[in-house]
Amino acid sequence: MFAIYYNLTKWKPYIGNKHVIVRTDNTGTMTSGKIPRNTTIERWLIELQDMNYTLERIPGKDNNIADWLSRHLGQTKDSEEVLLKLKIQPKQELRKDYKEKQE
């Protein structure tokens, strides 16, 4: 749950009121509304109430990107290149979006 909270709040200035789909293979996150939570998680959920997001469950076997990253990152010589692509691509897309909205 912390990963979802952290990233949604970090990207909030860029997301604005746009709808965001958060895909996870973590079953506990999907059932967070049905089980007792501690005060920290309650606070995170309260802060996220204003955001327009939906949680979607992806079975672990179908979550190929996360699976590959968790198993291979740092173990292959192209790990650094993959990380660079992952870091650069979103920034370029955000800049492109921002420029288009300014025009």
From TrEMBL:
Reverse transcriptase RNase H-like domain span: 1-50
Source organism, top-level taxon: Eukaryota
Keywords assigned by UniProt, alphabetized: Endonuclease, Hydrolase, Nuclease, Nucleotidyltransferase, RNA-directed DNA polymerase, Transferase
A Gene Ontology molecular function term of the record: endonuclease activity
Residue stretches in coiled coil: none
Protein name (Swiss-Prot/TrEMBL): 11303_t:CDS:1
